[in-house]
């Protein structure tokens, strides 16, 4: 053994070739944490000191190559400021350079995922051989940063500027065929041939068949483009990147600027430019928020695993009550992830609609080449439409997805409870009705939970698993397990009107309604909130959700929380409802809807909306953008804080992830709790006081007042 550390070992093979193996102790994956970087430095020194080593293959002792940098570790260091980040990058890059400068040929054998820092390690090698089972890429811009271990420097020199811009700005994971086509890897082989192929490449270098020194020199020297070619390449790329990223995601643009600045420099000078730009992007609020989201996502996954341990029950057969679009979506999601499901309704037309929805979604997957027609048939065969309860004795869980009416739901749930086995779980897909209330009609309330899917089911990643007063831990755990099996992210919340997501969404709509009442133009509000980062403004969102659905849910919220959700005025949304303007579902709401060239609804302004609003709205006036933001956001954020106070949701991380995944809270703001952290809790409480005259919804909850007094944050 030439070297043995906690993350890396170096062992001699035959013919002067050595194996440089990443195998991080006590971890399921390899990653670049501080221990690995320190080990890399020590391992390189050991190789330098051993004159018998003529060439290296770089391998992994795990199913992945290297997943990337340990963002939970490095993310914390970004709070130290740009100078500290620059110092850290200088040390790290010196270590990577020392490997790249070894006087021997080096070949990376990429057996599995090599992302971020993991792929940057591959780039410091002279050659790269990739398994057909592997994926590579530089996804850092998804975290609000960009590659900082030389990725923006080496990749353009390996695959050209145009390709490198696309790889880095799009942040995608590349399959072997795409990586080979672009020149990012030199060969693709079957997994069992990977090691031998890497050794063979090193041997060809040693035999003089491959000029590895010339190959390496391309990475050490400037990109071979004249000034005109550079200008054209970067002008085109800048327009594309800025257009796609938008103003709220600075990382892709800053990565491009770094590449443009260092493309004419040698490696060492270029790395300094990359580091300077990286330090600049690492301290942006967007990086803080997106890295925070990554860690929150990891937290949610760990919590789900803990919940799972509470049940040994396997869901081998599911059923959904109520077909139609929602039932069909749930059936599709279960079947596509391998769980057979019975879809039961009382009408043949509804079953046809549900099967049609599943068939449509699968057909689109086939069109995109992600599934064969034979595989589509196999998935469809897992969905069994029926008009009766014949096979319900064998069902492990029944998901009720009938009309949002407590009487109908109660009747259906109590009926099916008498037809299933004693340990079958009943789950309601209600979006607002209390699980504890619905459980009163059941003989086995311990087996009953909420399982709230978001529409459209196939696209929305969140499932709220709602614990009623009598729901057992085992029932909750089994439902969490099923949600994960269906490819969803479950978040467990306690019962209350609207649960978590709808409970905090309707105060946001309330803030919008008050702005319209006070003379704001609903279009102006939409534009401001879309610039803030929401995928659609509140008026447009109400149209998409359905005005009738919104009015119905708002009444339930008002009954549950009358002190702050019961308006003392007639809202514009109620006016739309009374005039049969239900939004996209019937073509008229705040906006009217026409079909675009692709057959999708396109919103168009309708002067009639203003005429209908005139009797209940003050004279039209222009509001400052920040006031619009504050008046919409404060009621929502305050309600999130109340949910934390009351234990409806267990942690700020879960609350933030629920808002991101359930209603499209702007990811670059990190969620409601991180949004408050970035404003500063004391500053946020002061904003609440400024608008307290608008009512209880704007009064800062005690939790936030206490945090402000103690100078505390939700995170860090």
Automatic annotation (TrEMBL):
InterPro entries: 3-OHacyl-CoA_DH_CS (IPR006180), 3-OHacyl-CoA_DH_NAD-bd (IPR006176), 3HC_DH_C (IPR006108), 6-PGluconate_DH-like_C_sf (IPR008927), ClpP/crotonase-like_dom_sf (IPR029045), Enoyl-CoA_hyd/isom_CS (IPR018376), Enoyl-CoA_hydra/iso (IPR001753), FA_oxidation_alpha_subunit (IPR050136). One of its GO terms (cellular component) is fatty acid beta-oxidation multienzyme complex. Residues 318-496 form the 3-hydroxyacyl-CoA dehydrogenase NAD binding domain. The keyword ATP-binding does not apply. Residues 498-593, 628-712 form the 3-hydroxyacyl-CoA dehydrogenase C-terminal domain. Keywords: Fatty acid metabolism, Isomerase, Lipid degradation, Lipid metabolism, Lyase, Multifunctional enzyme, NAD, Oxidoreductase. Coiled coil: none annotated. It catalyses: a (3S)-3-hydroxyacyl-CoA + NAD(+) = a 3-oxoacyl-CoA + NADH + H(+). GO terms for biological process: fatty acid beta-oxidation. The keyword Oxidoreductase applies. Pathway: Lipid metabolism; fatty acid beta-oxidation. One of its GO terms (molecular function) is NAD+ binding. Its EC number is 4.2.1.17. Pfam families: 3HCDH (PF00725), 3HCDH_N (PF02737), ECH_1 (PF00378). NCBIfam families: FadB, PRK11730.1. In the N-terminal section; belongs to the enoyl-CoA hydratase/isomerase family. This is enoyl-CoA hydratase. It comes from Fluviicoccus keumensis.
